[in-house]
Amino acid sequence: MKEFLRWGKAKLQVDYRLLIIYCVLYFLWGLAMNWFGATVEIAQFTYWWQVITCYVLYMVPISLLLRGLPFHMQYAYGLIAMGVLEFAGYGLQTSYAYPNNLLDQFFGIRNFSLGMALFFALYFPAGNWAVAKIYQALFKKVA
After folding, report:
1. Secondary-structure breakdown of the chain: helix, strand, coil percentages, each rounded to the nearest 5
2. Can you give the pLDDT at residue 142?
3. Above 80 in pLDDT, residue 140?
4. Number of domains in the chain
5. Domain that holds residue 103
C-alpha cells in the first residue's frame, strides 16, 4: 500500500501550469457536456457546480494518475473510474437522465449508464493528449 501511495503522490506532483491547463480544460469540457446533455435531453447534473466536483476534483487527479500509460490502459482504468461515477451519480440521483432519451431509444434503458461510462472513459486518454498538446504549445516542454 505504501508503494502505491508513493507512486500516486509522485504522479500527482506536476508543474502548476500543467495542473491549471487540466482544470480549465476539464471544467470547460464539463460545462459544455452538461449543456449539451441538457439541450438534447440526454442527461444532466442536478446542480451546475457538480461539473467542478466531477470533472475537476474527480477526473483531473485520475487523468494525472493515468498520464503516460498507453491508450488502452488509460481507457480501461478510466472505464472503471467512470463506471463508479455513473453508478453513484444515478444511484444517488445527483445526475438526471431524461426519460426515453436518445441513448435509451438506441441502446435500451438498461444500457444507459453503461453507454455513458463507455463514452466518458475516453475522456482520460483524450484529455491527457489534449492537455499535453496545449502544454507543449504554450511552454515548449514535453508534458
Report:
1. 75, 5, 20
2. 55
3. no
4. 1
5. 15-137
Cell readout for 85 is 461515477
Residues in the chain: 143
CA angle 78, 83, 89 (to 5 degrees): 125
Q: Which residue, chain included where needed, has cell 461515477?
A: 85
Give me the amino acid identity at 51. V
Q: Is residue 27 part of a domain?
A: yes
Cell matching residue 134: 496545449
Angle at Cα 93 formed by Cα 88 and Cα 99, nearest 5°?
A: 115
Mean pLDDT of the 65-94 span: 94
- Cell 471544467 belongs to 27
The 10s digit of each residue's pLDDT in 105-135 is 888 888 888 888 999 999 999 999 999 999 9
